Amino acid sequence: MKIATRTGAVLSAAALTFALAACSPSNEEEPTDSSTAGGTESDAPEAMELSGSLVGAGASSQESAMEAWRAGFQGMHPEVTVSYDPVGSGGGRTQFTDGATSFAGSDALMDEEEYAAAVEACDGDMGAIHLPLYISPVAVIFNLEGIDSLNMDADTIAGIFNGEITSWDDAAIAEQNPDAELPSTPITIVHRADESGTTENFQDYLVKAASNWPAEETSGDWQGASGESGPGTSAVVQIVQDNTGAIGYADASRAGELGTVALKVGEEYVPFSAEAAAAVVDASPLSTGANGENDLAFELDRTTTASGAYPLVLVSYTIVCQQYDDEAERNLVTEFVKYVASEDGQNQAASAAGSSPISASLSERVIGILDGIAAG
Amino acid sequence: MFTNQRRARVTTTQEPPAPQADAQEYSTHPGAAANRLFGGLSAGAATLILVTLAAVATFLLIEAWPAMTASSAELSDKVHWLGTESNETLLATIGFLVYGTVLISAIALLIATPLSIGIALFISHYAPRRLAQGLGYLIDLLAAIPSVVYGLWGAIVVIPVLQPFYEFLERYLGWIPLFAAADDGSVSGTGRVALSAGIVLAIMIIPIITAVTREVFLQTPTLHEEAALAMGATRWEMIKMAVFPFGRSGMIGATMLGLGRALGETMAVYMILSPGLTFSPYILQAAQHNTIASYIALQFPEANQDGVSALITMGLALFVITLLVNMLARWIVSRRADFDGAN
């Protein structure tokens, strides 16, 4: 039954685009192969020639990854134009629920109102779902001569960033790092001056995992001790680089030569790595407000004790409808997002944006969900 | 004043539609059409600037209206960066920002004005002609450097150099509140403070102030200068007696031009300063000040609709400040007009 509908969809899509499509089966075959590792029924798109334009908007965190995905997807489907406007998560969700875009990128989950608005915007009454396709670990970076890595638990990090721990040889740090020769340099904390998803995730980690963080609610604005700050990731990294004794947080891909903190998870200390970042997503439960089982809206488990998981990550979602009223639009969205979720797409993003590829099982699950998206 | 009179003159020659015969007579003159065209063009250009100004003011008012009329509780509910620190309202935030803007601009002006007048005097009255010319070009070149480059240069090169100097200031002049250290006894370890922003802004406005004052000093009537010298004045006395009184209004005008740029400067402050919102006088501590323009640049990218409205209210505040500064400058210049030139 399902296969029959898909074949039908494929046929009509092929008919739709027949006149425009320049047949290029050779460059078509290879990339789709890697994207369809998940299931047999998604083999169908191989025959599909897509055309048209796909419009999305949302989180700026995904911007450079989206650039890579756009280029990769358009390389496979020369007749397709994908555009993504990095207006910010909130703006992206609004444009999506207004029906102005086909998909949205968002660092935060939709709230109830937005879920309801999405039901209006999407065809049918199944609304929209989140797909976690961009995982980026956030590193706590510091600048101390001769020290590349330090172990810290959440309370220590919170203590540093709320101004309680002011010197690098403080007992709280020394206890966890018996082997490191800590200088008595004063600690200079560096945070983002602008509102940002990195700040939000960093503070969310501290709110949930630390007992001594002053704020109770997560915010994209800085809530810790006022210290040095700079606009954007580059500025924060620059300030930490220029000042011995400085500590800040930034996209892990930007940590470069700076020292990084290994977080205490359970009884061990986990340095950030792509696998560790993907592991925490797999170990997290779905949000209670999720829209059915297809809605992969994770409630990130910052206090996870899963071995080898790195809980300080930024997860950015791609939000799509469960049903589109237009078959061509549906095909564009699902094919594009399938490419994004594929191993190839995730690796592209990893090399372009320094994100961590999602796990193979999550990728498979996402592709399965995308295959179920209907056109009304 | 002058422009008004001049415009009035232009319109009087144009407006009364001259008797038919006259018009015909003129229109046979080969330059008549061009004359009328040019008059129309320049009147149009003058009108355009007024229209633009009015349009900007209207835009600011309309866009800022929702934020200005909303109750402060309602607004900080929708705009989460309002009231994050101590529950400050929009008005209080604007207060902090106006203070920061004025403070940093004042630092910049305090540094830049004497330096610029010195440079201008050197170029106009001390340097050999050839050196003066070269120097003049260089100063003009400084004005052409984009502010984002100044910002980067300030953040990466200047600040690390200045930081030890700040520690020195704190050690020996720390009893002056301006240079006081934070509670933990140290000044900012990175140098991302108001004084740094002020210094880089000063470097940015020096070319403007210098260029204008240099031109004014060069206009000093040679007769006045020679008269002063003939009466036995030294060169410095001659400058005091002849050049400064003649150029006073020009110097004030130049300073105000510089102040205008300093008030509105965005990128340099944005990249150099660790921002904060307080009324503190401590210009060597981080997270104490911010300027309106830099704050807008910082918050705009992620601002929602109400946020944008609140930011535009801040823009309106900056607009008003600049307007006041210019009016003050005009007033000072007109008051001093009696001492100008000829007497």
Give the biggest sheet of chain B. Answer: none
CATH fold annotation of the largest domain in chain A: D-Maltodextrin-Binding Protein, domain 2
Could you name the ranges of chain A where pLDDT drops below 50 across 5 or more consecutive residues? 1-47
Assigned CATH superfamily of chain B? MetI-like
The end-to-end span of chain A amounts to 16 Å
Number of strands of chain B: 0
List the secondary-structure elements of chain A in sequence, H or E.
HHEHEHEHEEHHEHEHEEEHEEHHHE
Rg of chain B (C-alpha, Å):
25 Å
Characterization of this structure:
The complex is a heterodimer of chains A (376) and B (343). Chain A is an alpha/beta fold. Chain A folds into two domains: 4-136 and 316-375, 3-Layer(aba) Sandwich (D-Maltodextrin-Binding Protein, domain 2), CATH 3.40.190; 138-279, Periplasmic binding protein-like II (D-Maltodextrin-Binding Protein, domain 2). In chain A, 39% of the residues lie in helices and 19% in strands. In chain A, the strands form two sheets. In chain A, strands 1, 2, 3, 4, 5, 6, 7, 8, 9, 10 and 11 form an eleven-stranded mixed β-sheet that branches. Chain A starts with a helix and ends with a strand. Chain B is mainly alpha-helical and 343 residues long. Chain B has a single domain, classed as MetI-like (MetI-like fold). Chain B is globular and about 70 Å long. The two termini of chain B are 21 Å apart. The relative contact order of chain B is 0.13. Chain A binds chain B through residues 60, 88, 90-91, 166, 186, 188, 190, 193-196, 219-221, 223, 226-231, 235, 238-239, 242-243, 245-246, and chain B through 80-81, 84, 155-156, 159-160, 184, 186, 188-190, 192, 270-271, 274-276, 286-287, 297-299, 301-302, 304. Chain A: Residues 23-47 are annotated as: Disordered. Chain A: Residues 1-21 form the signal peptide. Chain A: GO terms for molecular function: phosphate ion binding. Chain A: This is Phosphate-binding protein.
